[in-house]
Amino acid sequence: MHIIELNEVEFDKYASNHRYRNYYQSSAYGRVMIESGLKVQYLGVINDLGQLIGSALLLCKNTFMGQKYGYIPRGPLFHYEDKNQVLEFTEKLKKYLGKQGYFYLKIDPYISLSLRDRKGTILNQNTQGNTIIENLKAAGFQYNGATKFFEDEKARWEAISKLDEEPDSLYRNLEKQTKNKIQKAIKCGVEIVQDPKNDVDLLYPLIKNKHTRPLEYYKSMQQSFQATQSFEVYYAKLNTENFVVNSKKLYEEEFSRNDKLTISMQNNQVKGTDMRKLINLKMESDKLVHTYKKDLVLATRLLKDYPEGIIIGGAAIIKYDHAVHLLIEGFHPFYKDMNPNYLLKWHIMEKYSKENYKYFNLNAITGEFQTPNKYSGLNEMKLGFHALGVEYIGEFNLVINSLTFGLYKNTTAYKKEH
Q: What is the pTM of this model?
């Protein structure tokens, strides 16, 4: 076994057919990283028969004392179940990278450990998962462990919905709260439109506070992945005219209902339990009348200011290997209660279920399903789309030069990562 360098074509040909394939291990993503200022190498693993049996997109993440810190995102692509092969591969990789001046390497193979329901109950488990972890540890990789939140470079937990049903059936399977929020968005006049140019300039102000990545990163993603028609941008647009019409209708209907409840309460024959029920209904109706009146006032003002409508949310997706991946999403905080992010995700699910895509990856969640925490809302929202929680194997580190790594551990850069 030995390590060689591949060109983009050779790498993509092998990587796109590997069982652990993913868009982070693609030349399209490699070009994005180059635009971001990182050095990229495409490595291949050759067995003694000259056959390609593994590959890796390697990033040079940083330098320290003239040596390099490497990262293989969602890789390498390799057969981890065979301990002897893992041992040999690791030995060859250390020698290869050592000669190139690397002192440290991080990997996080795209291997799932378990599937969970929205309560965290294990539905399916990778029987080889623990074997793979032990094989990597035996080869000298340090395991970061079963992290639950966002301690790793890439999320160790994601929410994934199957798209193998008709849209009507998919919708019925959504959580009740999710459906209610989708319907509220529609009633408010929110509509989903695709940007014909898939431009990220309008999207960036909606997402810039969710991540530290600059606008140029998303432009690079757009340019690189759109070359294969794999990148798309969608916007949630508030149709202000429809918002006025819908708000007026809701207000008038509830006002009429409120009137009828008032008349019923004035009936001297209604007493006891029936009266208490009427009082509760009237109180609920009073709140709705107040809410719908506020909405109507807001809708009227927005129609005056934005007669052509206003963008209140947006999302970018990447299509890869029969799956749609939610790259990033965001919305204007002022319009949060209109739930543009819910309608955006449902639109994407509905559209791609009709185009025979198999999965919708809603991106990161946490591995804490029971104990309330600051990310509980994130899990509730994404898993509400009839999604399963997918637990990945996690992150491993390989020390190549122990002396340099020992010094690096005391730096601010290392402490930020850990």
A: 0.92
